[in-house]
Amino acid sequence: MAQIAKVEVMMVDLAPKVKRVDAIQSFVSQETPIVRITDADGRVGTGYSYTIGTGGPAVISLLRETLLPQLIGRDAEDIEGIWRDLLFSTHATAVGAITSLSLATIDTALWDLRCVRAGLPLWKMAGGAKPSVPMYSTEGGWLHIDTTDLVSDALEMQAKGFAGSKIKIGKPTAAEDRARLKAVREAVGDGYEILVDANQAFTLSEAMRRAEILAEFGIGWFEEPMPADDIGAHVRLTAASRVPIAMGESMYSISQFKDYLAMGGCTIVQADVARVGGITPWLKVAHMAEAFNVSICPHFLMELHVSLTCAVPNAPMLEYIPQLDDITTSRLDVRAGRAHAPMAPGLGIAWDWDAIEARSISDLSATIGG
């Protein structure tokens, strides 16, 4: 029995490596809640989640006051049971981002601990479908970047062996988006994927109009065209669009993915392990998507998602956006445009605890048990 003896929580605030602007917002900072779970044998599992600038203290408060005290004395191997019990204890605040981000911080720590105890890397423990996955880059495609630099970045990623680049759309006129995409397609040719992301900016009529433009350039997917809670609009768009529709980064439960898949609201799912509540529900979404013959291409968190995309058979690409360089000593193993899953037991993330301690917000830290 891997009885939980101590739990620690802290939060660091990380500045983005580059300016990140999309059609509706700017990425202000990465608030990163971190949880360490220690079992009675002294083994430790570490988990984390994130925000893009707001809500981090609320996540910490839910963890400290409500969720983490429930872990002491539990068997850390009872991951499904713990996840369900914690979800039920927050029933009045679920489904929602704060609850899901809090659950994910704990759930990823429990999976890390399970893998450490078993001596296996996460990608093998969670399925072991393949040891590596192709990558696409987002860092050079933000909305504020001018067309010349978009082209330069796409050519650089193509030369490195990446499978594609993602470009943010949502300029004031469709003609502006079209000109940017046309320039990139002419530069990279037809064999390189161009993906686009509207970050929920459009109405149904505008999304349909821009989908026709996207089809001109063989776009690989049209991501978050409209607000994620409007399933009906996405069903209509998916049925009409010649470009695949990708959804999922703004969904916070398995059931939301179930509804999209069952109703035909998208043709690619993009579950984010932090926003959906952890590894436990992420794997369920991935397998559910597989049953619908749909791919899963997760949003963000490449340092964690590399293991999950390698765990399942229906994850064809991983998004490249570095997030943890300032607080880790490990780096994603990228060779010829492919990300290789970590082989070390656990999540495969080597945390720099001196850097984390130096960056931690002291009044948001706590230790329970021990």
TrEMBL record:
SUPFAM superfamilies referenced in this protein's UniProt entry, alphabetically: Enolase C-terminal domain-like, Enolase N-terminal domain-like
InterPro entries recorded: Enolase-like_C_sf, Enolase-like_N, Enolase_C-like, Mandelate_racemase_C, Mandelate_racemase_N_dom, RHMD-like
Keyword hit for Isomerase: yes
GO process annotations (BP): carbohydrate catabolic process
Domain Mandelate racemase/muconate lactonizing enzyme C-terminal: 147-244
EC number: 5.1.2.2
Keyword Metal-binding: yes
Transmembrane segments: none
Gene Ontology molecular function, alphabetical: hydro-lyase activity; magnesium ion binding; mandelate racemase activity
Family annotation (CDD domains): MR_like
Protein name, UniProt field: Mandelate racemase
Organism: Boseongicola aestuarii
Gene that encodes it: mdlA_2
